[in-house]
Amino acid sequence: MSPAVRTVLGDVPAAELGAVDAHDHLFLRSPALPGEELDDPRAAEAELTAFREAGGGTVVQWTPRGMGRRLADAAAVSRATGVHVVAATGLHQALHYQPALLERDMDRLAELFVADLTTAPVRAGLVKVAGGFHGLDAHARHTMAAAAEAHRATGAPVAVHLELGTAALDVLELLCGGLGMPPASVVLGHLGRSPDVRVQLEAARAGAYLAFDGPSRRHHATDWRLFDQLAALVEAGHAGRILIGGDTTTAGARREGPGMRFLLRGLRPRLEREFGAEVGRAVFVENPGRAFGWVQGPLAPGE
């Protein structure tokens, strides 16, 4: 039986996701990014339409609680375009929130995450948390403990923002070693921003999924390293652990492009020329279905 992925319009068999942008944002706001909000449903719909026309089937939005997820709008643009959207619950680094919000919610994070995943009017399909630069502070440890508890209650995957691509092994030590999560339910994001192939290989051997960012002006310095990193993983037999997403986080980045569609019109053809069509299908179609599938299967409404 194919695992199910929870989208904003309901559960979808992993085999029906189509080509996937494994890490992106249709909607996002943060006090750390003033004036750069992604908050226009028409722009989000246009982005999804372009992605669908390029052959895309699903976008995984990593925007967590309190950062402008606009879940009702995410559901509306998914319905309008026919592109599946997977939303996130969870919490980012503390700098993205007003202190009052954190003080109000920190003691009941796991409860809030589970509610977002199982009983909210528009439900999340993953838990997003964040590490720090080369380490995990108290906020990261607290939110990751809540994420692991939500995973145990639901089977939902946990996706982790790695600050500048660092602390991947610290995250796995905490989530999998200390908190008992299966590595296959952990997605590590932004690994390409710290292109340490040895760390990437160790994370892949542990069984986690590795999410690399697609091209953008903000992170262009990582673009030229991408294929060397992918080559090391493919040659070591870890093609089944690779995910790729665009990770557009600001209005400026959306205007500048190249946008979600470039993943399928630019990156996927290059990847298939380099490594073969089988690897291209694994990265964009098969791996996301496993990475974002719920290990205990879909829950009934209200369960």
Automatic annotation (TrEMBL):
Q: Kindly give the SUPFAM superfamilies that the UniProt entry links to this protein.
A: Metallo-dependent hydrolases
InterPro entries membership: Metal_Hydrolase, Phosphotriesterase
Is this entry keyworded Cytoplasm?
no
Superkingdom assignment = Bacteria
Instruction: Could you list this entry's UniProt keywords, alphabetically sorted.
Output: Hydrolase, Metal-binding
Key word Acetylation present in the record?
no
Q: Which family does it belong to?
A: Belongs to the metallo-dependent hydrolases superfamily. Phosphotriesterase family.
**Pfam families this protein is in?**
PTE
- Modification type N6-carboxylysine: residues: K128
- Name recorded for this polypeptide: Phosphotriesterase
Q: Which organism is it from?
A: Streptomyces luteireticuli
